Amino acid sequence: MFESVRKAFGDVFDGLHRKGLLSQGDIDAALAEVKIALLGADVDYRVVKTFIARTREACLDEKVLKSMSPGDQVIKVLYEELTHTLGGQGGKGIALTHIPFRVMLVGLQGSGKTTTLGKLALLLKKEGHYPLLIPGDFGRPAAYEQLQKLATDADVSFYGGSFGSVEELLQGADRWARDKSLDVLLLDTQGRHEFDTQLMEELEKVGRLYYPDETLIVLDAMIGSKAIPLAQSFDRVAPLTGAIFTKFDSPAQGGAVLSFKEAIGKPIRYIGVGEHLEDLDYFVPERHAARIVGYGDMDGLLKRYSEAETQANAANVARKVQSGRFDLYDLREQLLEIGRVGGINKMLESLPSAVVPSGAVVDEGLAKRFMAIIDSMTDVERRNPAILNASRKRRIARGAGVDVREINRMLKQFELFSRMARMAGNKHAGGLGLPRF
Ligand code: GDP
Ligand code: MG
Question: Domains (ranges, CATH) in the chain?
Answer without folding.
Answer: 3-86 (1.20.120.140), 101-293 (3.40.50.300), 298-429 (1.10.260.30)
